[in-house]
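Quick illustration for those who missed Monday's session on complexes.
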Amino acid sequence: MRFTPRSGAARSLVRRGLVAASVLALGSTMAVAAATSASAAVACSVTYSTNEWTSSPGNGGFTANLTITNVGDAVDGWTFAFMFPNSGQKVTLPGWSANWSQSGSKVTATNLDWNKTLASGASTSIGFNGTWSGSNPTPPSFSLNGVTCNGTSSPSPSASPSSSPSASPSASPSASPSPSSSPSPSPSTSPSSPPGTHVDNPYDGADGYVNPDWSAKAASEPGGSKVAKTSTAIWLDRIAAITSGSAGDNHMGLRDHLDEAVRQDAANGSKPLTIEVVIYNLPNRDCSALASNGELLIAQNGLNRYKTEYIDPIAAIMADPKYANLRIVSIVEIDSLPNLVTNLNVAKCSEAKSTGAYVQGVQYALNKLHAIRNVYTYVDAGHHGWLGWDTNLGPSADLFAETARGTTAGYASVDGFITNTANYSALTEPYFTIDTKVNGTTVRQSRWVDWNQYVDELTYAQAFRNTLISKGFPSTIGMLIDTSRNGWGGTARPSKVSTSTDVNTFVNESRVDRRIHAGNWCNQSGAGLGERPKANPAPGLDAYVWIKPPGESDGSSSAIPNDEGKGFDRMCDPTYTGNERNGNSMTGALANAPVSGHWFSAQFQELLKNAYPPLS
Ligand code: BGC
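Prediction with beta-D-glucopyranose bound:
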């Protein structure tokens, strides 16, 4: 379907399957305090953390995340203010989670409706992007409703705004500096946190679990040993995947993996270990496609079975105290909530929406998983070629916020979001950005970009995070990007920007994502392994991860009978000429592919060959 921005038509698109400046993250978190009024009860503490980058010597940008904690009496309506120490520091409006303004060096933020009331002890997270020139020092003090924050609630007659303590990590009860590379304020991210503590970024300072099953398959392929020790996720894609297989199906169950993770954790010294588990079994799963349909149906009591036969046993195993020191990352239901925004024309998706089954299933999973201290939840947020149009991104963010608000812990039940799961969208397009113009024509007008607001996954994930924060999520949320198969190296990778003055030719010659259409998602020919898993790779990002295990098929290229509920989706057929979701283009899928999840040696070889960064 073609998107016409002026008509405001909603973009209905593809599932998993459509130049960032180089940034230097100089994260800093500083807890800063200020005072109390003699008369009363306004008292507050503030943490102010930034991620900075330099765009030219002496100039750059930054993201500032602040958490205001009301340590006095309840506040109904607030004005928060501070002075930038340096005249070169500027807020880029609009900021998020408050009405921001700046006059000279003075910055003011007033409440929005939803965070107007701050109960005693409550916090709210607000933030903004900014620019700096010269340097970017932390403001020395902050005020709430005219009262300088110093983190204490006992009225102090002598306190005055001008006598507030200067910035100091030890000046506030909530003070706790986080590691410098952490993209978000993280009171407990210190590598020295006791094992099992719920930290801000579970990847920070940790090793990743190596799945022996996947590792053995990778190692058995020529050249595969170069990547066989890479951490990949465990997919619990059916009820039977939770327990160990028997006769003829000797897969490891969840306990086997967690036991092995405890062993790997014990063997790696004092570093924590992160293990990723994909929660993927909603009733009417993957409602807009066929290749990964699952075993449960809404019409056949699927939601109850999901809760009692799938989520409950998983949560019971994860809560076993012998796993309490592991950092268990759960990837919650890919291809689910976004389908309720863009694919309601598909009967199975509209049923998922009208019955509430997807939302209730995700809420149930979040409630159970978040209740376990060492389990982290990351909810699927599609990819830029699916939700990258404002008409899709805003409603998706609203749906995520609504879903989180309906859980027992509210926004806190979500640690972050993941994009590009099992997809192929390039992490970064090095030769053009969304702002590039060719002979006066924006690249957005090209057939490839098709009016999308993003050209790559990193800019999309970062912008999505800001939108989610503006909808109410705390600034502690971090993003993950699945980089397992979005490398786009090899001989077809362009090495320079095109000189064409035709916008379509320019984009086609410049883009590193070599798919035929950005809506193609199945076993893509020409794809390579992407960035290796890495913590804190960019501002706002908790990690690059390998969720889709490279070498496992996305779907069969022709119909193959199976007992897994998997259908045949023609997007996996290399001879199919496409549909409106991929601009009626060829699918670019590899031939001779097995059913989704099964080992596909030819694809693994192709991913090795086209790895970017290249394998050493
Ligand atoms: C399949 C799952 C599989 C997963 C990882 C999905 O597309 O439907 O069965 O476990 O990919 O390969």
